[in-house]
Request: fold
Amino acid sequence: MTDWFDALSLRGPADLGFINGGLDRTALRRDDLAWQHIAYNAPGTQILVLCQDTPILKWDGSKLSSTFKLSEAQALGAATDIVFLGMENGRSCFAHQLAADLFPSLKARPDLKLIDMRSIAMQALFDQSRTSALGTAKSLLSWHARHRFCSACGQASAATSAGWKRRCTVCGVEHFPRTDPVVIMLAVRGDVCLMGRAPQFPEGRYSCLAGFLEPGETIEEAVRREIHEEAGIKVGRVRYMQAQPWPFPSSLMIGCIAEALTSDITVDPAELADARWFTRAEVAAILENTHAGGVNSPPRMAIANHIMDLFVRA
Amino acid sequence: MTDWFDALSLRGPADLGFINGGLDRTALRRDDLAWQHIAYNAPGTQILVLCQDTPILKWDGSKLSSTFKLSEAQALGAATDIVFLGMENGRSCFAHQLAADLFPSLKARPDLKLIDMRSIAMQALFDQSRTSALGTAKSLLSWHARHRFCSACGQASAATSAGWKRRCTVCGVEHFPRTDPVVIMLAVRGDVCLMGRAPQFPEGRYSCLAGFLEPGETIEEAVRREIHEEAGIKVGRVRYMQAQPWPFPSSLMIGCIAEALTSDITVDPAELADARWFTRAEVAAILENTHAGGVNSPPRMAIANHIMDLFVRA
Reply:
């Protein structure tokens, strides 16, 4: 009998960002208004607070905290959106969005720190579960901020289901939070792999190629199309490795290894500043930050780093 | 060295619907208006035509055809949306959406057949590549129909990039076609697997559990949450098997096998009419339509059938 699960662990890598969420989303309670009211007002309830897509953190001079009591959160400002994230050890967790114009005054306060989501994950300021909750809050709140109106009729929509749905106030159409699947992959050919650099990358940075999966594509088809579009390489088989939620604003990174069938690179200049083949030894040096040519990799919190690492260790 | 690709083939199953698309999407030409104009008007260009989410097919009394010449497509009615799907053997392929009120008169014509997308896939009326193109057209055109307005400001948006983008005519925000990842999975425990039936299923139908992946989740986390929510079963490891685009209206089905850690089922009555364990022998009988209890499976064109089949053959 097949062991479906050989070599796959329950948890992904311990230093990959935004995975291993610990909240029980308790989705069955989202439409239970009475339950929501009690949970929101319970003394142990924890509130994550964001403003302009940035988590507001409590700072006592030595320690950062990502959660506020309800009264503390309300004192920071009125929530323009509230989302129920779930429960952990009997305590509910909600997220508040604050009006964008509060940002400067909050930023000036000595008892708060406003640290962008990418830095929080990169510096691993919190454990994986809390970083996952912050990322989820960011994705949901940014969806609300960009979906105040019904795309079907143009009239105002309103949040419902504890923040997991919006309904048009006029035509009644329901809208659900959006998650955009993205394929991110290393094309490999024997001892070399294909990496590229986007024009906006930091100096020396090379990474896996990536792109949005389009309607009508399988994961494997999207991998093949993206690699061919961006670098002119033909791809055969594709293997899924690991996924990562990526709250910028709300993607699902689907990490894959792809089998390159050709070698001649033709870069699409609209997408990439460069693409080239790297040997396994070079990728190892890049990950250790000792590459002779000064090439560097995305941080450990990003799935690209882990796909590169898998290639090195294969 | 790891063989990343052991046991994985380039193409998925030959009877799975909506996979193995054969069009080169030629995405680099989407913003090239001059190129688009020439391609659209070229004599060999093929047009898929949809009305009310339903493909319009040509019928000569013995043979169905899914494509029209431009002049033929225009004679059916003015296109409310036009999308460039890609190229195949040097010929371009576009899709037209017709106004919904044309449906009855088109339906009445003896030289046309209007067959819904699900039936087209189920009966395999066309090869996989053409079914994939029709599904892609359906997903894109239905996205346009439901996104005439900017979700950020409520004003009208307009299609651009050959139908792969909409831009707000007032605030300028760009909107991209949406693809909703869905996890669909069989929880297995030794010789048995967990299947459920939704209230709207045909009589006797049991299938894999499934649900939308939510913002902030990995594929594996979504699988665990859905199985626990719908059936109360705890899940350990998860293995990705195969994906399938599902144009109803625009999902990506991510097929997985999950390791069940518990046995006692608690059905969520809001989601399922029933859920129970089936032995490998039972699932084999279900797939052969010889199950003693009259249980039947989704058709071969659906990924659930293939996941069940993998379990039987494991």
Summary: Chain A has eight helices and 15 strands. The radius of gyration of chain A is 22 Å. The CA atoms of residues 83 and 267 of chain A lie 43 Å apart. Chain A touches chain B through 73 residues (CB under 8 Å).
